[in-house]
Amino acid sequence: LSQEEEHDDSAEVTxxxxxxxxxxxxxNTRLRSIEEKIQELKVQKEALDDISMELELADEDEPVMYxxxxxxxxxxxxxxxxxxxxxxxxxxxELEKYTSNAEECEKQMKELKVxxxxxxxxxxxxxx
Length: 128
Fold this sequence. Notes:
This protein is mainly α. It has helices at 3-6, 15-57, 77-120; strands at 64-68, 71-75.
């Protein structure tokens, strides 16, 4: 950028502009938090998928150790399979909820970017 472009402060920041900038910042922070949670849920989903494979190979007559919270409990094989299916369904629903929230944040951020870049151009940086 040339010196003239860097010091081109002809666009005055109004109260509404500041509110938009603040909203963008809040959405960006929320999006990062949601993305971290999505990553955590994906790791949990992978673990449950691995458990599912292990249960398919396990002897159905022997009890299995199933994790509930921080503890492991002996559970009959059929009950463990049902519990796993329920846990997977709950996890998928939660993952879908967070993904939807992330998409909504991105949509709102995109709208704010259009407005703010239209007014401030290169004088504002909304990218990471």
